[in-house]
Each structure stands twice: as structure tokens, then as C-alpha cells.
Amino acid sequence: MQISLTRPFWSLLVVFYLMGCGSSEQSSAVDQEEEVKEWLVFDGSESNDKEIVLVSGDEEYRSEEALTQLAKILSEHHGFKCTVLYAQDPERPGYVDANYTRNIPGLEALSTADLMVIFTRFRALPDDQMKYIDDYLKAGKPVVGLRTATHAFNFAKDTMTRYPHYSNYYSGGEMGWTDGFGRLVLGEKWVNHHGHHKHQSTRGIIAPDAEGHPVANGLESGEIWGSTDVYGVRLPLPGDSKPIVLGQVVNREGAYDEEDIFFGMKDTDSEVAEVNDKGIRVNDTLMPIAWTRTYEIPGGQRGRAFTSTIGSSSDMLNEGVRRLIVNGVFWAMGLDVPDEANVALVGNYDPSAYGFKDENYWPERGLKIAELKE
Which residues of 145-157 are buried (b: 16+ CB within 10 A; e: fewer)? Predict the structure, then answer.
């Protein structure tokens, strides 16, 4: 028997078909939207109500890798809720672009944070993002600054911003802000490479009067090592800055290897350097590479700051480096520092060698922020 389908019946079929297609397209769009993560959140434990915001964004030392691993350690082993922020081109949200200096989404998380860990380099963020950082510092909340955080911000002279005084080279009329955020908050700005970059590594020596300091808990002289060279600082450090770890400059004993994550340097290298590549004697007076202090920006309250100029993603392979930074986190928040903090790596940690990338690197790599949580 042949069934005759009337025009109205055909119309209903077409409507149902289109509704199904639309539903499928909407579902696909939702799936795609859910995949876009502009920041990562690592949940803490019920017994720990502290929230840490970790701000990455540097072109050289792979802070996006270092801070993600640090967040995993702090969340997994110590119960902190951690939110990690990343530099991104606003036209490619959800993808890391460390070369894009003008955008770090998610800084509003600082409004409820108990600690800011910052590892940025020469950022020039828009005012609406800088305001969250400025408000945080005015409240005198604790800060941990790593490696290039000494030169975390830099605004060109023609930049229209309310925050030019955060710049590393600032010498304007804002009282107290000479040399910018690095000097005022962390205790030093960018000065120079004290060791020979990619050729001389850093061995951490506990400062003579810091052996009983909580930040030195579980650490011994010599166990901290990183292939990143010692940064130069101006001595003495300002205010109540207290050096905890000093950086001994160590020569690379093997051959230079551009393909090696440590460029041919090894944690077993033991030859103490006499001079750097500029002929300057480097170990007569050891530069601090980790110190504590209190800060107070104009119009704000006093707060604690811990600074470590060692801490690249490859430095984080060293257990002593991880323990130093975790200890600094506890100290900055005024918490009891563990006698020997659990700093075991979490997940599959395979960091990149440090170094600058050209403008095509990040768009071509296509590193999704969501992938960093794995």
C-alpha cells in the first residue's frame, strides 16, 4: 500500500529536521566554548581555605610551565586553591602567547586572593587589569616574586596609562616609585646578569645568618642549583630585606649544548667561577638570590614579600629550588613553614629550555591553556 504524504506533514518533517540540526550546532558550539580556558583552577582541600593566584607572563623563562607545576604542588600536597593566569593574544583566547605583553585575563581573582605569586617580564597591561594588582598591593597582601618579577612591568613613555610608575625604569615624579614595582615591592629591579648567561649556573648557599630562618627549612647549602645564571642586585638591599640564599656562580665544565635543557651545564658542576664573560669578579661578594622583606606602596598598607631570582621552568626540576619557593609561599602568608615541605613533582613535568621565541612561535605552537592542566 502506498502512503500519500500531505504538504503539511512534509512541512512538519522539515521543521523537526531543522530543529535537530540547530540543536546539534548549538551543542557543538557549547562544546567548543567549554574547551576555551583562559586560566586554570586547581582546587584545594576542605581544611585549607587559602587562595593563591599565580600570574605568569614572561618571554624567556617559561613561567607558564613553572607556575602551573608550582600550583599543582601547592594544591596536591598542601591543599591551597590555586588559580594560574597566562599571557594571551585577545584574538586567540585560551592559547598561551608569552610574547603578547598587553593581556593577562583573570586578574580579578586577586580580589579574593590570599597570596599573589608573580612571574612576569616587562608587561604593559591595560589599566583595567593593572587596577587589580594595584588594589591588591594597596591592601598590603603578601607577594611572592620569581626571577623576572624584579622587572615585571614596563610601559613605553607614550603609553596612556595610570600606572607608568610600575615600570622597571621609572624615574618620574611619583613619590617612592623610582625603579618601579621591582624595587619598591620586591626589593630590586632588573640590574644585570651577574653570571655568564647560558654558560655559568647558580649554586645556592644559605646566607650565614639565615640558617635558622623558616624559609631555609629543610634546605642545605649546595643543594639548590639551576642553569639560570645569578642576577646582579645592588647591595645592600633596601629596607628590612633579609637575604636567605646567596648565589654562587659556577662554571660549565662540559661542552655547550644548545639542544640540552641546561645548555650543557650540570648540577654536578663544581668549579667556582672567578670572573664572568665581562671579566668582572663574581664570587668575591655573593649576590642574594632569595630574600624576604616587607613592602608598603604609597597610600597602602604594609605587607610581606618573598623574592627568588631562581625559578625558571627548568630550575623547577631541582628539589631544592621547589622547596625554597614553597617555603617562601608559606612564609609570605604568615603560615608555619613545614620542617621539610613535600615538593614532589605532580604529573608528567617535562619543561622547556629557557630562551626567547620569535613572533611566529606561539601562534604556530598552539599551546592550549587547558592542556597545561594534564
Answer: bbbbbbbbbbbee
